[in-house]
Amino acid sequence: MTDVLAIAKKYFSVTSLDVPPEYAAMKTSKMSTAIEQYNVAGLGNMTFQHAKGMMGLMKMEMMTVTPLERDLPLFSFDIIDVLGNYTLIIELYDVMLDKTDKFEIALADIKKDYADLPDDDRGEHWYDSIKMASSVSKKGKKKALAERCDELFARYMEAYFAIAKNMPEVADKDAKRAASDAYVQGLLDNGGPSTDIFVGMLGKEKTTEYFKKYIFGTER
Description:
The chain is α+β, with helices and mostly antiparallel strands. It has 7 helices and 8 strands.
């Protein structure tokens, strides 16, 4: 799998953050999860989440980059591997203070190069109005998809961090944090596929802390 840390470190200083044991690794009868959280200096929060279920037959790798200091979209990535069935989900959410199409332009050509891979219909969700057109969802057999999906993800990450590096930090960081937090609060208020799982595991109050402090880093 793409070494996102290595890509991020080409452009920014990245520092590991301490996550309390109760959230760093969790286990229930249905699923076990572990997370790693990082501060990307001058950009924001980056968290990796690793999950297993179905006695190891289901594996998920997830990542979020939450922009708190530069005016970027929020970047969310998931790989779900279940019995050789493989799903890649890359979603960018418009939490920008000043609207720009530079991300859509940069990512459109990359997305086009993988148009032959089978798309996955994610259905309708409350956040569709802020989900950017550069978002990607692919689904098929792991043997057929994994290598090229990993290449696709690496190219998206490279483009995202390269654009970020050349952007100035925002003047109003409180407003930028609030814009990203509004998306996270929307997940908590309206639900979502993974959000609902964690609310079931932890309850609403602990899920709120888990998401805002450690997954997305929008709460100090």
